[in-house]
Design a protein that fits this description.
Alpha-Beta Plaits, 59% helix
């Protein structure tokens, strides 16, 4: 017993002396706590790390707040970088209604939180925590504490400690409550059978896609291998291509062990010989258009894999391909051995037809034998090199510029209203993500890196918040825990119901889109999962994506603005 106590005291002293070890210990246990499930409810990384940090903080351990600030800025930049393409795309005409919907829901949640906070006589820290947890936006913690740190008030520390308290208490119902309301009450309010409504929406989308899909040439490249029939022996490759090449892109390759040991891309005048094996490359969508009969017996040979290579993405830029139609590029720029499998525009793959004009910011996905693809690259555009390296110069300058943008303040009385460094970095992240989507050769940050920055960045920030506010957290929980929970319940429930009614009576979205859009605007990913699971369909995602991007941005900004109303 005595040795156990001594060992514990020794460990606490080590953690106090080396706070960097404390931080990693908190992350390790916090992530594990976050994986805990109670039925369908998952605790989540942020609440798990926060509570672990609070427990660790009871031992009088502190971590330098500079660490907190650094990782929070990394998180915000990654958040903006990931959301940037979708955010700016949503501002266009086709997504404007969902943008406006999300803005109204977020504004309502903001105003209603202020109202409840005023009625319950909350201070700025309590109101910020309520906003963060009830509307499930973890980034509010950092933005609000940043704003609070600039206030010249005697109870500043106490208010800053209240932010994570309010978040922790209200987050649980913010997640579970929103999910329950959207999946249970939502369909009843909309008077629908959720699964049936989603099925109808899925069928409608398929019909529209089929109607618009004539001549669409998008899709993976497929390969088939045939042993040339005797009737083709002595005829040229050009003769063979005629019945295959009508209105579709087809590439032919010949292999004959007696003439050559691997597949070759034959000239049109090449005469077919006995024992020739014919490989045909085509878009998977075009399979039904190809007349297979009469070519010969289909065979299976591992050597067919020789023709397959990893798709190569090519940025068009100012190349000769810019301004040409897809059909012209296929006929004039590419050789027959190379096919365009996909077209990426503004960071997203889109359907296309042979008449679509390829612009300078488009990306073509080329497939074919490596040698064939490499030979045409100089005439198509600039190859996008897949790399695991992060453009740190791009990221670093983006964070610096964002921080500088956020520093200037507009004085209203004695209160300075500013974007803050955090708000500025978020905005610059949006711009940087958008710029990368328009020019993929610039500012690459691999998905694994953005995952680390956004997830671990936020987790480290929350861990430091929990550790440093540990003692104050317990005191705040004891004094305001119940009232926080009641306030969070009201804000979450009313905001969720408001989104449903707004979508039904004002925007007149389809019911699955209404529910998905409400989940997105309130940034409650768990609610979207619950909707898709109950509907046995991904139809609610149609309404989720754009409002989620808008919600992440606006709710984060609200974390700074709410301080003004309680100061």
């Amino acid at each position: 017993m005595y040795d156990g106590v001594n060992n514990m005291l020794w460990l606490i002293e080590v953690l106090r002396t080396y706070p960097e070890l404390t931080l990693f210990l908190t992350l390790a246990f916090g992530y594990q706590v976050g994986k805990t499930r109670f039925g369908s409810f998952k605790v989540g990384t942020v609440p798990g790390v926060l509570m672990t940090g609070v427990l660790v903080g009871q031992f009088g351990i502190t971590v330098d707040n500079t660490v907190k600030s650094i990782f929070f800025l990394l998180f915000l930049f990654a958040l903006g970088y990931n959301a940037g393409p979708q955010f700016f795309k949503s501002l266009k005409k086709e997504g404007f209604s969902q943008v406006l919907f999300a803005c109204i829901v977020c504004l309502f949640g903001f105003i209603f939180t202020i109202t409840i906070g005023k009625l319950m006589n909350f201070n700025a820290g309590q109101a910020s925590g309520l906003l963060a947890g009830a509307l499930t936006q973890s980034s509010v913690i950092g933005v609000a504490q940043d704003a609070l740190s600039r206030l010249d008030v005697s109870n500043q520390k106490m208010m800053m400690d209240f932010v994570p308290v309010g978040y922790a208490v209200t987050y649980i119902f913010g997640t579970i409550g929103c999910t329950f309301i959207l999946t249970t009450f939502g369909p009843k309010i909309l008077k629908i059978d959720l699964e049936k409504a989603c099925l109808e929406l899925d069928q409608q989308a398929k019909m529209e896609e089929k109607s618009a899909g004539d001549g669409v040439q998008t899709g993976e490249v497929s390969y088939r291998l045939y042993e040339v029939d005797e009737k083709w022996v002595g005829k040229t490759v050009a003769d063979l291509e005629l019945p295959l090449d009508e209105g579709i892109d087809v590439s032919l390759y010949i292999m004959n062990p007696k003439r050559h040991h691997s597949f070759i891309f034959p000239a049109k005048e090449m005469v077919l010989a006995a024992n020739d094996c014919l490989a045909i490359a085509f878009k998977g969508k075009d399979a039904v258009k190809v007349e297979w009969r009469g070519l010969g017996k289909e065979i299976f040979d591992h050597r067919l894999e020789e023709l397959k290579s990893d798709p190569v993405e090519v940025y068009i830029g100012q190349s000769d391909s810019c301004g040409k139609t897809m059909g012209e590029i296929q006929k004039e720029v590419l050789q027959k051995g190379v096919l365009v499998s996909k077209l990426k525009r503004h960071g997203e793959f889109i359907h296309y037809h042979q008449g679509i004009v390829v612009g300078k910011q488009d990306v073509l996905c080329l497939e074919g034998p490596t040698s064939c693809v490499e030979s045409v690259l100089p005439f198509v555009g600039k190859k996008i090199v897949k790399t695991d390296e992060t453009d740190v110069t791009f990221m670093g300058l983006g964070i610096v510029l964002g921080g500088l943008i956020g520093i200037p303040a507009l004085m209203i009385g004695k209160i300075g209203i500013t974007l803050s460094t955090s708000g500025g970095v978020l905005i610059m992240g949006l711009l940087c993500g958008y710029l990368h989507s328009r020019k993929p050769t610039m500012g690459q940050i691999p998905p694994a890196a953005t995952w680390f920055l956004s997830n671990v960045g936020l987790a480290v920030f929350v861990a430091v918040v929990g550790i440093n506010s540990g003692p104050g957290f317990i005191e705040g929980l004891q004094s305001s825990g119940l009232i926080f929970f009641l306030a969070g319940l009201i804000v979450t429930a009313v905001s969720s119901l408001f989104g449903i009614l707004l979508g039904k009576y004002v925007f007149k979205f389809s019911p699955p889109v209404i529910l998905g859009a409400t989940a997105g605007a309130l940034t409650t990913t768990a609610a979207l999962g619950g909707l898709c699971e109950k509907a046995n369909s991904n139809a609610p995602v149609l309404g989720y994506t754009i409002p989620y991007a808008i919600g992440n941005i606006l709710l984060t900004v609200w974390g700074s603005l709410i301080i003004m109303f309680f100061s």
